[in-house]
Structure formats: structure tokens, C-alpha cells
Amino acid sequence: MSDIIYTTVDEAPELASASFLPIIQKFAKAAGVSVGTKDISLAGRILATFPEHLSEEQRQSDDLAELGRLVKTPDANVIKLPNISASVPQLVAAVKELQSQGYALPDYPETPSTPEEIAVRAKYDGIKGSAVNPVLREGNSDRRAAKAVKAFAQNNPHRMGEWTADSKTRVAAMSGGDFFSNEVSTTLSADADVKIVLETASGETVLKDGLSFPKGTVVDATFMSARALDAFLADEIAKTKAEGTLFSLHMKATMMKVSDPIIFGHAVKAFLAPVFEKHGSAMAELGVNPNSGLGDLLACVKDQPAIMADIDACMADRPPMYMVDSDKGITNLHVPSDVIIDASMPALIRAGGKGWGPDGAESDANCVIPDNSYAPVYDETIKFFKANGKLNPATAGTVQNIGLMAQKAEEYGSHPTTFEIPEAGTVKMVLADGTVLHSHAVEAGDIWRSASARQAPIEDWVNLAIDRQKAEGCEAIFWLDESRAHDAELIAYVKLILEARGLSDMFKIMAPREATRASLETITAGRNSIAITGNVLRDYLTDLFPILELATSAKMLSIVKLMNGGGLFETGAGGSAPKHVQQLMEQNHLRWDSLGEFCALGESLQFLADAKGNEKARVLGQAVDAATQGILDNDRSPSRKVGEPDNRDSHYWFARYWAEALAAQDADADLAAHFAPIAEALRENEAQIVAEIAAAQGSPADLGGYFHTDPAKTATVMRASAALNSIIG
């Protein structure tokens, strides 16, 4: 196994890797550090899942499973880039692309009926959604803005949209019948084997068997009422039209791969309710699945003039919709993975509560977030800025995050235990001795789920928060709501540990709404705060606050201290940026910013030095920090516009600053001597390198694919400077 594993992923960060990884490997080799790769891309996961359909040459190892084993060992040192957490439309598109490239993969069965189709569907369902993160995250999360990044943002404040007190933008969430209101939770007093059953008038169906939880596990169960959801959506569509705002739905149909696509489908049906009432049977025969979105629906019915006419009439009568791409007519409801709440809501808030409408103009919006578990965070943020005006990035403090996520904690681990209920009855979680742990009366179409959080990750999370607060000395808040069943169980753990260590006075425990306001007040005053949260809030807050503070969440320092001693270094948040890929393919300009990769690389090298005693790696890591500072100080980050410096330029400058720092340091004479001529070559060839990268821009770029690019073609595009390549090798 290599000293450091750099993950092969998808879309913009993978394109950037084609340029950046050769630089990393060249520099690391001089310190005796090997850097290998493991493929966790969507295409790679698909190929690894179906070896029996492929030729020997086409088969691919299951790198995700291998990494899953590695992260449970003290030897793990993984730099993880953002990967696609695929929705069904993305998964289907990836399969079609691979089939077109000669891979004899089975089609994704939308409605499996035979045993073979059911087996294929089960395999594909294991790939979509958050298939990667729960496997790799065998530790809890420490996310924060690196000091250099925060200082740069304060010295170079980004543009913020204006907030006014009369803004009509608001958040709408269900007041009952949702996951929040129906949640029950308990902490197990002993090891337990559990099965989930549905009892109906026709008998008992086992939904899930063979679940095992150790003593101390917090086990939750809850459901969302389909009836309540539909009534809520219909009401909000009507209110949005009356208010004259944009209708926008904010979900996480990628990570919450079972529940949220169903909720998304309810929204599609609600928005086109008259059409489904009139043509529902016909559309079903045409293959319409509302969970796949409006785009797929329109593709299915495009040759049906009567249906298309009724869709046009219905859309004309509905409120205007929040748009993904106004120019192309891509709406909020087109694809379930296009609008992801942790990115879409912060962007709207940063813009002063404005979203893009179908007319290409910005408008206020009704932000519909059906479940009320975390909607109060965004609701309170909007109310705060309406009352106080926009945040000033030049003076704002920062919100760090300590997140509970190890061992599939909380909702992100609930996919195998989430079900759309086929008929009315009672769902029960039953212990081996027949004791009923949790029980809910449900109706057909309801979405029921169970989640858990184990004792060891919970205790590790609290202790990690204690260490971070001690290091920072600032305000620290556990974002836990005592009125929510799950949070009440966590609060018991938190209080016990804090009291045992005599630290109760150093921390606050606040419900998310109150914690949001307190944190916004803190950073507005220029001070810092630590948000100590569960798994989903970790995801949401590490986009919300960085986008407000830094303009992006891709520049966050994200460290996962693995529970068995290894390290996982994530390259910030921000997704995998499909729009960046589109621009590259059309204009050969990649605006993806690799600053997150720079930060993760520095931490990984320092960790390697501590773990293995490799002092050359430490020198290399310290020089990475200097190079990162050079990128910021000299404004070498990529521009958004074609013809201006892009991602490839930033990699040249990073390599140059890195080599110069290594040549100038006096801690290791051998490294200084090795990198002095490299630094000189990079300086002397600056004009040629920059010119060669600039010359590549402006024309379409051929990558040989989207989900499964051709390595040679991608290298040609992303390593556009022959002069730089001759130096790096």
C-alpha cells in the first residue's frame, strides 16, 4: 500500500487531478513518499460491481471496499476528493455511457419484476446515493477554514447580495406529520438483534432482518406521512403564487438516496397535480416516474400532444419556479440531484435571498424544505439577515465544525432501513425476545426509516469537541434540541462526559434555531464559534458558513481523525461541480479551485511525518503551507472566465511556490539541493508555460466521456503545457 492514497473521483476534481497529481507524485518521491490512487468514482464503482458482465481486461477491483478496510487501520492516510453521490438519473446516464464504450452492463431496472432484475436493481441501489462516505468515514469530522484562507477572505471580501427587511423570501416546512414530529429514540442498555416488520390486516412482512447493535447505541425510528406531505406541498404552491415569489424545493436526493427522491417525486406530482389526475395512467404506461424529475417526465411524454398541452397549461397556472439554468429551461424540479440543499440554500442566502426565475431575473423565493428537523437553521438565518442586513466578510468571525459521522451515524446511515410503505399497518422494530423497541402506525405511501449512532463514535465526537475548544478557546455549542427524541439521547451522553471532565461551563447546548442565531451574532461581532453537530447538520453548516464567510465551501480544511488511528483528509465541501465540467468541454477552461486539495495535502504530509517519523515528509508538508499562502497572496486562484488563468495555471504556480519554499528551507539540505534546479526551471519557463496553457483555451475539449473519461485524452487537455510537463515528468 502506498504511503498516501489519493482518490480517483468524478467531474471537476478528477479533471483537476489529471493536472495536479503528477506534481504531487514528483515532489513526494523526493521525500521517499509514495502516492497511489484508488478509484471511488461512480463509473469505477459500477464496473467493480458487475465483473461477471465484463471481459478480463475491463474488470476493475473494488477499491471502495479495499479503502473501507484500510480506514479501520492505523496505517490509513487517505486524501479524499468529492465524488458523485448518484441520483437515479445520474446512475442511469453513467450506465448508458459505459455501455456505449463497450461495457456490457445490465440496464438499471426501474421496475424490477424477475428475480434477475431484482438482483441487478439491488446491486445498483448499493452504488447510488451516499455509498462512499459511510464506508470511508470511520472517524468524526473536524472542518474549519485554514487561517490563511480566512485571512485572505477578510482582506479580499467577496460580493454579498443585499438583504432588506421587506424581502418576501422565506422557508416553509411541515408543522406535523414529518420525520421531526414522528421521531422516537432510545439508547440500548444491552447488545441487541433487531428486525423491522410491517403488520397489516393481511399479515406480517419482514422489512429488514439481521440488524445488530451494540450496547449504548442510540436507535431512532420515524416516518413522514405521505398524506401530510401532499397537503403541505399543495398549500405551499398556492401560497407561493399568492405571494408572487419563486417556488423552490431544497432536498438532498443524493445522500438521502431512498427518502428524498420519494419526497422529490411527491413535489413533482403536486406541481403537476391536474396533469397526473387526468393522465396518470397513461403517463405510467409511458414510463413516467415522478421521482426521476420533470426532465425525465417531459422526455417520456414529448410525443403526446394532449399531455404536453395540459403540462403547458398547468405550468402557466403555477407560480414561477426557481431555475437551475434559465437559459436552458432547467427548473428546480427537473432532476433530483440538481438542487442540493446544503449548496442551494447558502447560495440563495448569500445572494440576498434571491433565486433565478424562468425569465432570467432574480426574485424572492419560497424555500420549501418539507422536514422540519433542520429547516429552522435556514429559516433563522434568513430572519437574521432580514433584520440585520448582509454579513460583512471583511470583519466576520468564523464557525468551525465538529461533526458526528463515524460508523454510519444518524440519517446518512439509514438507507438500508428506509422504506416506502406498501399498505397501511404498523411498523415495528422488534428485539430477538419479542420486545417492541419502536412502533408507528402508518399509511400506504408513508416513508418510514430508522437510523442509529453508536456509543464509541458519540464519545469520540464529544472528546474531539473538547480538544478543539481547548485549542481555540472560543465559544462552543452543541447543536442539539432537547425536544427532539434523538437529540435528547445524545444530550444525555454529552452532559455525562462534560460533567465527568469538569467542563460543563465551557460548552452550551442549544437547539439548531437558537444556535444559528447565537452563531450569527458571534461571527457578526468578529468572534469565532465551534458548532458541534450531528451528521446532517455537519454537512449543511460546513457549506452555509463557509459560503457566507469565504464565498465557497471548497476551500475548507476537512480532517477526519479515524478512530483506529489513521487519517482521512477531505478536500473541503462543495460537490463535484458539473457546471465546471460543462465549461471545460465547451471552452477548455476549468475554473475548479484546488485550494481544498492543497490544504488536504499539507495535512496528509504532516500526519505522515507524525505517524511514520518521516521528517522529509514534514518539510514537504510545511512547504505546501507556504505554497498555499503564495497562491492566496499573489491571487493565483482560477478565474471563472475563459481566456483568463484557470485551474491548470494555479497548479503551475503551486508547483513553483512549493519548489521555491523547499529550495529556500534549511531543515533538510538534500531536499533544498534537489528542488533548487526545479524551482529555477519553473521560474525560467514561466512565460512559455503560461502561454501554452492560455493557448489551449477557447475551443471544445474532448475528454472521451463524462462519467468515464479517457485517461490519455484527459491528460492531453489538463496537461496542456509541454514545458511544464518536461519539468514535472
Put the structure in a nutshell.
With 729 residues, the chain is of the alpha/beta class.
The largest sheet is: 10 strands, mixed
Distance between the termini: 23 Å
What topology, given as strand order, has the largest sheet? 2-1-3-24-23-4-15-22-20-21
Q: Supply the helix-strand structural class.
A: alpha/beta
In DSSP terms (H or I, runs of 4 or more residues), the helix count works out at: 27
**Number of beta strands:** 24
**What percent strand?**
15-25%
- State the oligomer: single chain
Uncertain residue segments = none
Molecular shape:
globular
Q: Measured on Cα atoms, how large is the radius of gyration? A: 26 Å
Calculate the mean pLDDT score and round it: 95
Estimate percent helicity: 40-55%
Present the secondary structure layout.
Layout: E1 4-8, H1 11-29, E2 35-39, H2 42-49, H3 63-70, E3 77-80, H4 88-100, H5 115-125, H6 133-136, E4 139-145, H7 147-155, E5 170-172, H8 179-182, E6 184-187, E7 192-200, E8 203-213, E9 218-224, H9 226-243, E10 246-249, H10 259-271, H11 273-285, H12 294-301, H13 305-317, E11 323-325, E12 330-331, H14 341-350, E13 354-356, E14 362-368, H15 375-388, E15 399-403, E16 418-420, E17 425-431, E18 436-442, E19 447-453, H16 455-472, E20 475-479, H17 485-500, E21 508-510, H18 512-524, E22 529-533, H19 535-550, E23 556-562, E24 567-570, H20 578-587, H21 595-612, H22 615-633, H23 647-664, H24 669-684, H25 686-696, H26 711-718, H27 722-728
Parallel strand pairs: 1-2, 1-3, 3-24, 5-14, 10-14, 15-22, 20-21, 20-22
Antiparallel strand pairs: 4-15, 4-23, 6-9, 7-8, 7-17, 9-19, 11-12, 13-14, 16-19, 17-18, 23-24
Helix pairs in contact: 1-23, 1-26, 9-10, 10-11, 11-13, 14-19, 15-18, 16-17, 21-22, 22-23, 23-24
